[in-house]
């Protein structure tokens, strides 16, 4: 068994390598930061996509170019569901559920073609060594998404509910505020580093390009969040 020091060294080395790869992809290819976020939010590792990351992806999805990049990643993750690689598809379901309730209205129509694959995921069965029933989690999420895709009234209710929650949180200043160092999301820090634009102490959250704030979308934007 590795010592704690060796384990930490390997972890730091892995993070360093991933950071270099992100930087190279942003510099040498046409990949966009939201596209990288969507890829990382739906990868096969053990971590779940956090709420802040999904919120950033949802905001980016209102721009046409990033919209197609994000949905393309989700289509690929959902179409490649396998028992041994189930985490990636499950995380794609989690992100899709968030986009259906918070993102562009066109998301619901876009993923009608994935219904059969999502329905098949409901039969997945897996209980981990700690006794957690991941199969049940996948089934519950897939069934919820099918309801959102098929029932327009239910989708509208859930979008209205999500909007009210978002407005309520913004009323307390929780979204667009200047965060402390300890509050900053690791994904945000990685994204800032990859862009050679680290989130410094003098940069407020209001200036983030995907921060929730009242502004007018460009003509290139997709539909509004209204249900």
UniProtKB/TrEMBL annotation:
Q: Which CDD domains match?
A: ENTH (cd03571)
Which Gene3D superfamilies does this UniProt record tie to the protein? 1.25.40.90
Give the molecular function GO annotations.
clathrin binding; phospholipid binding
Where is the protein situated, by its record's location annotation?
A: Cytoplasmic vesicle, Clathrin-coated vesicle; Golgi apparatus
| Cross-referenced InterPro entries | ENTH, ENTH_VHS
Q: What are the UniProt keywords, alphabetically?
A: Cytoplasmic vesicle, Golgi apparatus
Q: Which SUPFAM superfamilies does the record associate with it?
A: ENTH/VHS domain
Sorted alphabetically, the Gene Ontology cellular component annotations on this record are: clathrin vesicle coat; endosome; Golgi apparatus; plasma membrane
Assign the protein's first listed, main location to one coarse class.
Answer: cytoplasm
The reply on keyword Cell inner membrane is no
One of this protein's GO BP terms? endocytosis
Q: What is the recorded name of this protein?
A: Epsin-2-like isoform X2
Gene label: LOC104235698
